[in-house]
Specification:
By secondary structure, the protein is α/β, with parallel strands linked by helices. It contains 7 helices and 7 strands, in the order ααβαβαββαβααββ. The protein has a 7-stranded mixed beta sheet. Bound molecules: S-adenosylmethionine.
């Protein structure tokens, strides 16, 4: 399964259109905490690294994981082209790869869903740290009935994965749901 996932994503990223670098996600640029020396972030399913590279430009150190060798090859090339350091791009199948045992200031995910990862995501955020999450929801199935329903969020689902957190933003849109939440200092 993981092998075919990797092959599928590698093939997609080998296509010049899919491999175009886009700018960082607006939800991230709006909510990412102001950088300070030593600030750390974790990104799951980083693709071509558009978000991680944006954070690195602002002084973050980022651990960024993705299953696709091709995506991360391009992401590393782009990091070099921008003469940046600061992103540790790791090829990993998140189905079975343990997340680093680090307390991050920010953990974020865009357009990827594996519900088994929520406990690890919650625990990798430091007290007072932030989660930013956005991915497809079930409304997308109306337009794309062949999409895999297990990869779609239910409406109102994201905040339920972060009980007791301070909700900064929680929204169900026409295709995507998003959540920005802060882990309480006492958790
Ligand atoms: C829709 S893309 C989103 C990429 C990036 N987050 C963005 O918004 O630009 C989904 C990403 O999930 C990655 N992915 C899929 N299955 C994965 C797995 N089991 N482990 C790690 N990454 C995976 C793919 O390689 C792909 O880069």
């Amino acid at each position: 399964m993981a092998h075919t996932d990797r092959a599928r994503w590698d093939e997609r990223y080998a296509d010049p259109i899919s491999a175009l670098q886009k700018g960082p996600h607006k939800l991230l640029t709006h909510h990412a905490p102001a950088p300070y020396p030593g600030i750390r972030a974790l990104e799951l399913a980083c693709g071509l690294g558009r978000n991680a590279l944006w954070l690195a430009e602002r002084g973050y150190t980022v651990d960024a994981f993705d299953i696709s060798l091709e995506a991360l090859r391009r992401a590393r090339d782009e990091m070099q082209r921008r003469e940046l350091a600061g992103v540790n791009f790791v090829v990993a199948d998140l189905d079975c790869f343990p997340l680093p045992d680090v307390a991050y200031d920010l953990v974020y995910v865009f357009r990827f869903l594996d519900r088994r990862l929520f406990p690890a995501i919650r625990s990798r955020v430091c007290a007072g740290g932030l989660v930013i999450y956005q991915t497809l929801n079930v409304n997308f199935l109306a337009e794309h009935p062949n999409a895999q329903p297990e990869h779609m969020l239910g409406l109102g689902e994201l905040p339920r994965h972060f009980p007791g957190w301070d909700v900064i933003e929680a929204r169900d849109g026409q295709r995507m749901s998003s959540f920005v939440g802060r882990k309480p200092a006492s958790k």
